[in-house]
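Archive entry. Fields below.
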Amino acid sequence: GQNIDQPTEMTATEGAIVQINCTYQTSGFNGLFWYQQHAGEAPTFLSYNVLDGLEEKGRFSSFLSRSKGYSYLLLKELQMKDSASYLCAVDHNTNAGKSTFGDGTTLTVKP
Amino acid sequence: DVKVTQSSRYLVKRTGEKVFLECVQDMDHENMFWYRQDPGLGLRLIYFSYDVKMKEKGDIPEGYSVSREKKERFSLILESASTNQTSMYLCASSLPRGGGGYEQYFGPGTRLTVT
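PREDICTED_STRUCTURE:
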């Protein structure tokens, strides 16, 4: 079966750094996605990790450890607009491009 | 620019009605997906299609069917709507990324209420 765990909610202060963790136990693993979803909107792509290590992209970074079944999304210099739900998703390495999504972490950024 | 559109943003139907949700993508993607999203349950895959006329069940196919007659269009059908199918329905299509994996592009969603 597929099991993906992330915290349900997190709160952080504007300008701070926050780390959102994701652990997974799945059959068939090619890589891990992070998507951002603002309330009432569709998810949009943030990052994809296939190799172990940290991938940095501006204020956002994503880390993967395949041996530990663990990933995190790191958001620096938080802004109010970063308040959103963050979804981790396992890419199952199928030709159909199927992914299994976690339940999402709702991040609230406070002034 | 990538575009996935869904036929309605909001829909209200009665119990027992047949409901059609339409999704169209203009990116020539092979793969298309239907999810439902409920609070506390995340995104759950209903059905997906990897080619015209090809479909596979996802994690929660019961009570749903799909149709893919043309590459750009993927329809979700609720044969007899029930109140437990009240949800946000999201369509997506996917493309192989240069860096690996298949990035999914989502439509704006249809919020369906069954009364």
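CURATOR_NOTE: The first strand of chain B starts at residue 4 and ends at 6.
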